[in-house]
């Protein structure tokens, strides 16, 4: 029974193939035309879809000048490259897509200059009027920003300049930019002085207990952990703002320098002092 069905199916198949061959020959031209129309429609649709996914023609010159609007299109969406600006310098960070891609931790920085957030850590709210306004930041923050810029220069590709606070339409540094550079230099000098002081007068050991408050004391390794020949005496060393101080270990020969202040209720040659804030 099953052999009969098989036999009949083979005949039916052969019959259909003959019919198709005959019709194919008769309507050959029509079939070819239909296929051509179908292919043309498919290509048109594909071309349109692609045009929608790449909204901007990206300039790939090395030192371009970008408007804020142009920069915002380099946002990693629909296959666009990923750019960010720092202190008005534009970098291609597409290579770091795991950090900067859509939905990733540092996507906030993409397509804009949000320099302030590099030191404030504020990644939630973007206000274009203040996001790159760095002049009111502290000296150490300016140094930090300059380090971030060096990082991007080293790790990613520099692309050009953003027209705005740091560069004018001709790509020239603005007055604002020059002020920034002056403040950055001052900050570096101030930091070098502080580093030098910290080197000469290492920090004290410090601990806190509820019973005794803050205890400060000097040893031959206090401060940077490196062994030295002297341990010194704890003294208050005030910052440039004259409001905050830290504890410095001062060698005996320099104890009379007026920049050092003794701790209240602590003997002149005491090796440890206690205080409460
Ligand atoms: C002011 C605050 C912060 C800023 C501006 C910042 C910025 C960044 C940026 C831009 C990157 C990507 C660097 C690249 O392109 O390779 C990065 C990477 C990273 N950040 Fe932050 N970050 C901040 C705070 C933090 C904190 C608090 C943590 C830890 C809890 C952290 C952990 C990391 C880690 C682990 C990576 C590297 C991830 C990897 O290489 O896979 N960051 N950060």
UniProtKB/TrEMBL annotation:
Cross-referenced Pfam families, in alphabetical order? Answer: Cyt-b5
Q: Which domain of life is it from?
A: Eukaryota
Location of the Cytochrome b5 heme-binding domain: 66-163
Q: Which SUPFAM superfamilies match?
A: Cytochrome b5-like heme/steroid binding domain (SSF55856)
Recorded GO CC terms: endomembrane system; membrane
What PANTHER family does this protein map onto? MEMBRANE-ASSOCIATED PROGESTERONE RECEPTOR COMPONENT-RELATED, NEUFERRICIN
| Similarity field | Belongs to the cytochrome b5 family. MAPR subfamily.
| Protein name (Swiss-Prot/TrEMBL) | Cytochrome b5 heme-binding domain-containing protein
Give the organism the record lists.
Drosophila mojavensis (Fruit fly)
Q: What gene name does this entry carry?
A: Dmoj\GI15505
């Amino acid at each position: 029974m099953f052999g009969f069905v098989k036999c009949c199916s083979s005949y039916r198949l052969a019959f259909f193939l003959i019919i198709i061959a005959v019709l194919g020959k008769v309507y050959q031209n029509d079939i070819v035309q239909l296929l051509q129309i179908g292919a043309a429609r498919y290509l048109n649709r594909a071309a349109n879809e692609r045009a929608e996914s790449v909204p901007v023609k990206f300039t790939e010159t090395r030192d371009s000048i970008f408007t804020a609007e142009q920069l915002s299109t380099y946002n990693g969406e629909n296959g666009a490259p990923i750019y960010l600006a720092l202190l008005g310098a534009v970098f291609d960070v597409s290579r770091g897509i795991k950090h900067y891609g859509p939905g990733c931790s540092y996507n906030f920085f993409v397509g804009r200059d949000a320099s302030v957030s590099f030191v404030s850590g504020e990644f939630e709210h973007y206000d274009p009027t203040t996001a790159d306004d760095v002049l009111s930041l502290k000296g150490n923050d300016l140094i930090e920003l300059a380090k971030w810029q060096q990082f991007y220069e080293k790790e990613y590709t520099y692309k050009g300049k953003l027209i705005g606070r740091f560069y004018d339409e001709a790509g020239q540094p603005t007055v604002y930019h020059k002020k920034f550079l002056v403040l950055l230099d001052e900050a570096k000098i101030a930091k070098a002085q502080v580093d030098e002081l910290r080197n000469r007068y290492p920090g004290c050991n410090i601990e806190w207990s509820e019973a005794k408050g803050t205890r400060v004391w000097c040893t031959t390794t206090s401060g940077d952990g490196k062994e030295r020949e002297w341990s010194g005496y704890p003294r208050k060393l005030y910052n440039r703002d004259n409001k905050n101080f830290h504890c410095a270990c001062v060698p005996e020969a320099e104890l009379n320098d007026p920049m050092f202040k003794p701790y209240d209720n602590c003997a002149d040659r005491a090796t440890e002092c206690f205080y409460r804030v």
